[in-house]
Amino acid sequence: MKKDSVKIVTIGGGSSYTPELIEGFIKRYDTLPVRELWLVDIEAGRDKLETVGALAKRMVEKAGVPMKIVLSYDRREALKDADFVTTQMRIGRLPARILDERIPLSHGMIGQETNGAGGMFKAFRTIPVILDIVKDIQELCPNAWLINFTNPAGMVTEAILRHTNFKKTIGLCNVPVNMVAGFAKMLGVEEKDVTMEIQGVNHFIFATDVFVNGESRFQELLDKYAHLSAEDTIQMKNFVSLPYSPAFIEGLGAIPCPYHNYYFFTKEQLEEELEQFKTGTVRGEVVSETEKELFELYSHEELAEKPKQLEMRGGAKYSDAACNLIQSIYNDTGDIQYVNVRNNGTILDLPADSAVEVACRITADGPKPLATGELKLPISGYVHMIKAFERMTIEAAVSGDRNLAVAALNLNPLCPSDELANIVVDELLEAHKEYLPQFFK
Amino acid sequence: MKKDSVKIVTIGGGSSYTPELIEGFIKRYDTLPVRELWLVDIEAGRDKLETVGALAKRMVEKAGVPMKIVLSYDRREALKDADFVTTQMRIGRLPARILDERIPLSHGMIGQETNGAGGMFKAFRTIPVILDIVKDIQELCPNAWLINFTNPAGMVTEAILRHTNFKKTIGLCNVPVNMVAGFAKMLGVEEKDVTMEIQGVNHFIFATDVFVNGESRFQELLDKYAHLSAEDTIQMKNFVSLPYSPAFIEGLGAIPCPYHNYYFFTKEQLEEELEQFKTGTVRGEVVSETEKELFELYSHEELAEKPKQLEMRGGAKYSDAACNLIQSIYNDTGDIQYVNVRNNGTILDLPADSAVEVACRITADGPKPLATGELKLPISGYVHMIKAFERMTIEAAVSGDRNLAVAALNLNPLCPSDELANIVVDELLEAHKEYLPQFFK
Amino acid sequence: MKKDSVKIVTIGGGSSYTPELIEGFIKRYDTLPVRELWLVDIEAGRDKLETVGALAKRMVEKAGVPMKIVLSYDRREALKDADFVTTQMRIGRLPARILDERIPLSHGMIGQETNGAGGMFKAFRTIPVILDIVKDIQELCPNAWLINFTNPAGMVTEAILRHTNFKKTIGLCNVPVNMVAGFAKMLGVEEKDVTMEIQGVNHFIFATDVFVNGESRFQELLDKYAHLSAEDTIQMKNFVSLPYSPAFIEGLGAIPCPYHNYYFFTKEQLEEELEQFKTGTVRGEVVSETEKELFELYSHEELAEKPKQLEMRGGAKYSDAACNLIQSIYNDTGDIQYVNVRNNGTILDLPADSAVEVACRITADGPKPLATGELKLPISGYVHMIKAFERMTIEAAVSGDRNLAVAALNLNPLCPSDELANIVVDELLEAHKEYLPQFFK
Amino acid sequence: MKKDSVKIVTIGGGSSYTPELIEGFIKRYDTLPVRELWLVDIEAGRDKLETVGALAKRMVEKAGVPMKIVLSYDRREALKDADFVTTQMRIGRLPARILDERIPLSHGMIGQETNGAGGMFKAFRTIPVILDIVKDIQELCPNAWLINFTNPAGMVTEAILRHTNFKKTIGLCNVPVNMVAGFAKMLGVEEKDVTMEIQGVNHFIFATDVFVNGESRFQELLDKYAHLSAEDTIQMKNFVSLPYSPAFIEGLGAIPCPYHNYYFFTKEQLEEELEQFKTGTVRGEVVSETEKELFELYSHEELAEKPKQLEMRGGAKYSDAACNLIQSIYNDTGDIQYVNVRNNGTILDLPADSAVEVACRITADGPKPLATGELKLPISGYVHMIKAFERMTIEAAVSGDRNLAVAALNLNPLCPSDELANIVVDELLEAHKEYLPQFFK
């Protein structure tokens, strides 16, 4: 039944991440024969797509694999008969991200792009577009898998699950693989031998068990994690959070992900971001600079591989995770990966039709999540809170209900007050007006 | 089957609240013939009990009802054949409460007695004692109803439900009746015509529907509540929270209780408490003063009724609520009251064996909660979070696990940091060492 | 808010039950001032409606109450501004019922009208019509309460809950009130002092607790029920099932309703029905005879009250139950009645959006079910099985899927084999073709 | 961490199945180095154990693997430091089985050993013994895995889960692997390429999805299954049930397991068994004969391998399944096997702490079930019914409550009446009195 080759469509193909994706497909060509890769973008992104597309073609040619790169500004033409669709678009591009970050910070509120106000507005801009893409997929390539790595990946996945009847959607994030890498390092074992049980939602997961070659080493790891030295913390900064007290970690009985810094070290995170705000170096601004440099590099005609500098862009393992996922589906490998899927009882006390980020066995029929039972008591309150925030945000994104947006933001632990929730929602609505017609009916 | 008369045992009988309870039983004597009222206290409270007991006897005599008041320092003797047991004891008395409040405040953390650090330590001191009382009840008066209005009333109820097999326990609070009073005022109707649907846990409930003579007036009320004038807010300060934005209330679709100030107006509440901290007027200190004055009053031999000043003590409707509840059980009235009971699916997405505070039909077989379905989405995250805090606190109270205590406190939204969670837990453990043997094994 | 008077619309007004309904409204006029009662029927029922309508008018006149009786063949005209709509129609009239009973019996299968094959086909005929009625209500009298006592009342209620967004629907049955009457007799107390906790679905309920003046007398009652004499069984034949063994009842820990005879005494019930089949006296045939006689009686111009003979019609307390329900809603009485409503967690392990038959507090905002927790273990399997049968039947009624109909019937414990399920479904489809267009697309 | 070699203890080692187990371990020696295999039995089984043990030793010697076979009549000595414990004992041996079958049949009731009355009494005899074994394991080899293939395997597993705190227990059955084999044949593919999603409990599972190399071929398979020829049915008699109608299978949307014959073709199955009853050839009787012949064979000193005849014993793949499971745990293979484990939300609407038989990923940390969501509607009623029967049976097995036993049996669809439930329970209690002290206190 397995096709001899696959057609992949990447929406937001002009992204600076694309070379990593290309490299990933080239590396895996033997087991994942990508016949056609369509890079799709909007007219406004023509310059970037042309640059990235040219590099992609040079990379493929140099590698000597028979992969056809097609650049397209016509999403519907591209989608026809696709086997996999990946989405990595950014509605409003980096300037919108900078607003998502700077407007909240201008009022002393964390404005990070997937949690709190920033993530909320990224959801508001992205969800209507993704729902349109799904409509096209259902018409033009109904058997394709949609692999979304546009943030907020969890909310985007849940929006599709709740507002369409399309089932073949998977949300992807690089946080879990970074956690695996960190745990492997702490235990002195190889990454490939480590698997986790995780409970939570995108950017808000906890490791609740960790296995080396299938045997639980969790208690040992938890004890180590509870007593990290300052040095450890610095060395593994992509993975370890700011230092928690031993008592907290032991009482929690679960290992937080790096994004928990925002919730458990709000003061420290806010101080750092306010400094960036002052110096014009919020994440979106830094990334804009990096991107400029990357596109400068990409345009060199002699360049025919992914430049090292891309790895500094952040989110480096994202494209690799996407390639792995596609390869495992194509080959029915049955390995464990960590993705956002319909809960379906995997976390017993979250709604069955919500998206959760959990360990799944990857098969040709998609990810099959391993049951985890009820949320461990200490993490249950917080996970429910973030899930409620996500669900309210999705409803507001679809309905354009400002009241719901204000309530959702005020209920988010990163928002310090009702008053600020109103101010920040209004300023962000105004700033992104162009992309938020649902709120301006 | 109904007995001709009832025997009531009040544990913590030396409390300054007792005269209100006496007044309540006297007023209701026609429908609730209390034959014997045993006021029980510990030796250390002999002075207070003697004073209160003498007043109680004068009140009964003046009222001309044949109610026998018995003072006792022997709990087991008192419990024999009781029909109702009420608990209003305070382990460590008011000095312990002052520590619960001042120690957290000394580190800039809210130390209120039922939420956050203060409530946690009140639970730690109270739960082991209440579990012992339940053991005595099961032996000496197994058919009695235990009506607890010792705070934290929700946690105490859940501790009994989870750690004993005694079913006839009800937790009582005056917040719901105050909400009913406030809603009646806002709608210009009589209190007796108002009923509510509420969802939540003790000191953390939301009105999700409000009826006047059975017809829902909720949307109208919500709109009014969303647009309260500053004057309204001041006039109804026992009931209305600090002013929320219209958008938040409309987006929430539910009306918070006054205790939500602690969570939604943390900054304002903290400022006020820090001021009290400085001036030696935290609630426990104020109440200590009031109590001194009350006991001074109580000791006047000519006094034979509840003095007006008691109403300023706070929590004024507590005893009234207790009398109403006992009267409704005794007479199988079938009226609606708001109490803490085993959830049993009433709030569909909270654990069946947790305590919740909900509207119940009061019958001779106890409170029968009315199903409310799932938590309304906007309130679901927060309610889960507080429930998780409660459950962790109960487990720590029973096991004496300091790690769990630290984790529970850090996960409470009133706690600003992991570091402070550790410091405050340690200082409170040390301060209350005498009453917390489970933590010092 | 309460209206001074109410308009009631009765669909299927030409039913022989109507005089009881009229009597009920007359009796309650002081507390339930029915200004207008519209009796609606289809043209094919004109004769019956005219006869019943004339009797109704004579009854009202004799009683001297200012209740206007309006006969109508235009449902939409009738519904305008109604306060309550009652439905008691029978699609295909009694001849259809006779087919529902005789066709299964001709193959040796019980063909009772609410369980098994008969009930399934009554659902198939009724559900599409009731969904149309709901559409009219939503347009013409959206605030009206729809009180359905057309069988199968539970499935009809669930069909409305799942396939429309209309909430104000209540299904009504006389089984629970007959159980209350029986229990009162067994305990030697008055009916009005007895309340029950029940778990189950329409025609498949179990009493799981029974209270006299609010005190549980369940264990005593269960013991009595477990040891009924043959004489008791005969005397209370409307209520007591065939005699169960003491061990079964004690092990069950719940008291079955009379309809459980079909499931627990299938052999005996089948033998009785096969005898009726041979003698032309299946229930539908008997009722046809009775109806003829009743209409003969009704047409006597001197008759101006409900004739005694109607009580032999069976289902006698139905109309009374309907009048009580309407009166309690109108007056917000808060009394306990047993109706079919959205589950909403009342029975914790049945779907929240299914209909269940449970004890409810009746208010002006409708029935508020009292939480019952999980199904008692011994009854849980059977209740789930019947609920699955109901849900499959509803889906088949809406979709016209014959396979689903066959599977549903074969899964019903009254159906002896897959082969017969196919035969009986096909014969009934053919026999009722006229009323089942959804199966003949 | 993986040990170099493993110690396995087989309780009921004198079983005629043992040679298959030995063969299984020999075949897998390279990947599963069994250093010691202890065959444990009771004194009464000394003859059989000596015979089987001698054969086992000859088999090992011939194979030339360094596996030590130890015969023991001291369970506690044997368990010390075991890595895996398998249980295949039969309390009361085959004569008890014959009673389990013949007594119900003497009253016209199916008496099969895992469903209905026979299975119930096997549970009554086995559960107290298995709970004792678990106590020993917890003391003597707490890290061992207990792999139970004593029937009723599902109830035994649930009894351990509910009545001990031992987690490392797995129930095993050969039905799922036989279904895989049958599906592979029907689709013309290899067994190793087929995986299933199943929902249900032991001997009552339904295939709800079937994959070939990970791609769902379920609809195709369902259609084939719905239209099997009579010849197919005969050819695959170990796997295919009696022929269902196409409509039933399509409406069910799931493929039953062979044991469903008992429920869906009760009449046919009963007729067959009554014939066997008359001729003295009920299963237990046939197996007794076979066993005699097998032991005759086993005692030949020249025999040093598993005789072909054992395959006719029935349940042939049981031991193979056990070896596979142990091998996968030992090697952390991550392959899919179908075992009885704690539900934990895998089947969303069955209790979390019940045992279910589902597809699991087998790891060094045991089986990790793949979430399946809610029971498919058509199978939900029946599965709940059998689960309720199982849970009542377990409670009766532990408590010795005859009433519960009668109620459980009467609620089982194989029991035709309450009267027979009482008779059959009493006769079986009497017949097995020696092994059922809990019922004769």
TrEMBL record, chains A, B, C, D:
One of its GO terms (molecular function) is 6-phospho-beta-glucosidase activity. GO terms for biological process: carbohydrate metabolic process. Keywords: Carbohydrate metabolism, Cobalt, Glycosidase, Hydrolase, Iron, Manganese, Metal-binding, NAD, Nickel. Its cofactor is NAD(+). Its EC number is 3.2.1.86. The keyword Nuclease does not apply. Substrate binds at residues 97, 151. The record marks 113 as: Increases basicity of active site Tyr. Mn(2+) binds at residues 173, 203. InterPro entries: GlycHydrolase_4_CS, Glyco_hydro_4, Glyco_hydro_4_C, Lactate_DH/Glyco_Ohase_4_C, NAD(P)-bd_dom_sf. Binds 1 NAD(+) per subunit. The keyword NAD applies. Belongs to the glycosyl hydrolase 4 family. Homotetramer. This is 6-phospho-beta-glucosidase. The lineage of its organism: Bacteria, Bacillati, Bacillota, Clostridia, Lachnospirales.
